[in-house]
Amino acid sequence: MKLVLVGGGGFRVPQVVEAVGAADAAVRVDEVHLLDPSPERLGVMRSVLDQLAQRLPHPPRVSVGSDLDEGLRGADFVFSAMRVGGTAGRVLDERVALDLGVLGQETVGPGGLSYALRTLPHARHLAERVRAVAPDAWTISFTNPAGVVTEAMRAVLGERVVGICDTPIGLVRKAVRAVGAPPGADVSFDYAGLNHLGWLRSLRVDGEDRLPALLADDDALDAVEEARLLGPDWVRATGALPNEYLYYYSFPREATETLRTATQTRGQVLDAQQGDFYARAAAHPERALETWEQVHAAREAGYMAESRGADEERRAEDVTGGGYQRVALDLMAALVTGRPATMVLDVGNDGALPGLPDDAVVEVPCTVDADGVHPHPVAPLAGDMLGLVQQVKASEQLLLEASLTRSRELAWRAFAAHPLVDSVAVARRLVDGYRTAIPEVGRALD
Fold this sequence. Notes:
It comes from Pseudokineococcus marinus. By secondary structure, the protein is α/β, with parallel strands linked by helices.
């Protein structure tokens, strides 16, 4: 089986290869092909993976290249992990917004809209080439912002593209651990929303909904990172466990001030960390894996640091859970083996989540088997939850239309419609600022 990684020179590639080469991997991958426009980054990744292979029980053969059609030929699965503009683009996504007094974050708010604008033309092109060269392949999108990127690719690939994120299933696992569910228990749950904007609304263990008791217990909630981020009183008030990214919607003022006054934004930290990694690994390829592991540990420790106290570190149990690569491998395994798996995925709505268009991409539980991905109908969202989801989806769909028509006016409307942009005038300045600062955004709209 051939797996193609688009963005194959990216920092997280070793995690994917480690997952597919592990002893307990449910499917065997014969070849991993890394596609990337940067020969230098591909060279560094090749060094890391050559050293990683010595540890793996079933290391796949690794090939590299920059020709998209050639790399896609014979693919069974395509992982899209592109980052158009690199980490330097992320710095500008964050900084342009913060300089205008609004939240600057990679996937939430105006930063996410900017990231989408420069990514969507490339995502559509990838989808078109997959359809032409590897029409039987499944495409699994890691590319952020996952909801809007997956929605654009679905217009070309239909149901054979699925967006993934590790935060929803990570939340479920933490909640299961917090309620003390025994190994082997029958667990089911209700989760609904959009990518980086959803809620766990029930957690049944052997038929009993354990979520109400969890929400009432401060000590148990303390074991759930998301509840600590937003506070137990607010979590109880909503009656659901939130995706961690809801911190930015619930506390935008606090998050923006923390980011604005920080010495460096998260993007600047990652840009420096990863720039240092690639430089050191290129200079000393014999220590490439060791260098990657050091930088990866620092990256994980600093995740969403703006939501914690200055001296508060992430707990060990918050970092574990499998990550994107485990979600992707579980999805592959269910599709290949036919053994059904329940997962939370970014898929076409088609009536699964009432109140949103059928063509919208939503994040809901799905059953995956040899026949494909089958979204579960979920209970409707209501009140403030529904309102927030509808407003964000409206912003995303305006942005998709702006990208297709290269319309600055529609882009302005998309930014103005987003709940984290509090002024039409600021929305226009954001669009103009991103067009000026980031060439790929300018090209997408001009």
